[in-house]
Amino acid sequence: MNIEVRELADLGTDARRAFFERDAGVEEVRSDVRDIVERVRREGDVAVREFSTEFDGVQVGNIDVTDAAERAYDEIDDDVREAIEAAAANIREFHGKQVPEDWREEFGDAGTRELGRRYRPLDRVGVYAPGGTAAYPSSVLMGVIPAKVAGVEHVAVATPPAEPMNPVTLAAMHVAGADAVYSVGGAQGIAALAYGTETVKAVQKVVGPGNKWVTAAKAEVRGDVDIDFLAGPSEVLVVADETAEARFVAADLVAQAEHDPNASVVAITDDADLAAEVVAEVERQAGERERTETIEAALESDASGVLLARSMSEAVLFAEEYAAEHLTIQADDDEALLDRIDSAGSVFLGPYTPVAAGDYASGTNHVLPTGGGAKRQGGLSVDHFLRSTTVQRLDREGLSELSETITTLAEAEGLDAHAQSVRERFEE
Predict the structure, then answer these.
(1) Catalytic annotation, pick one of 174, 259, 325, 384
(2) Does residue 154 carry a catalytic annotation?
(3) Which listed residue (174, 326, 366, 384) is catalytic?
(4) From 425's CA, which of 44, 300, 311, 390 has a CA 20 to 30 Å away?
(5) pTM of the model
């Protein structure tokens, strides 16, 4: 495996671009995805079944497999069921803290304006859960639970078909509280959720991670339905100083690399000895994992590597520009470093907080922005499933206090009727 320490200051333009312009690969499939989405929109279940055969190699009978989720809950091993329940409880507790309260207060010296805000859940939401023969119960929990905590009445899950479908993923849907489960994946799954078919009921919003076909489909339907965000391959940035344990840093890099050969895994430190030790540990640990081929492909990518900074300040500047999906800080004064970084999807502080904790069971959400998206938005939360409405009430005195301001601005915009709607209330 070809991985070596590179000095940050010596990186050329192309090398820096590889780190900061992580590509989700959406554009290369956008045209094909557009055709898939349009066919599902026109032909419904017929198109869904044809694409399932073509892309998943499965002839789908029942698209609605909601009953299978409940049965799977009783069929899986007790220890797996208990792990799902424990993770779900933690995720539910954390997201419960995010639910905002309605409020209304008096404004103005005499309390003549009563203004406020109220929150209401969306009615119907679709969660995409990657899978098929693989098991991704964690993605199910991360998508469904925040929606149910927000109060969404109907939460549907779409997941790729398989023979048989993975019982662990199905059981997680039951534990999370999914109201409907559909055996349809890929771009066709996103299209089915967005526009509905004879079997799949259309939703107002689609959330959840997926491959480039799923991401491209979310980009295609955006505008007709809301989405969470467009996410690419997974990524981690580990910021470490001389106090860090090389094997812990390496373990986080290797763990993220096993997601996808296109994953971006980066460590940056100002300690040359640590950097060399991390490289050695990565090479050792990568060879011991089951998905070695995937891990090595990710680690050898131009978007991955071990970087040596001239100082921790330079490392922090890199971290802020990188805006990682997962940011791990393993340093003596991690809180001080964190205070200097604003852009990150989820932050993991200290040597005993691996990214895997957030991936599965600490309670935070693992559906996070990638490719620098953390500069603009945060990860999936209860907020994504709520709509807010402002509320106001003015008495006669309150309107009188504002009347000149309102009419002056309305007339400046050439909207005489707006101005008159205020004056009318004071004419005898």
Answers:
(1) 325
(2) no
(3) 326
(4) 390
(5) 0.94
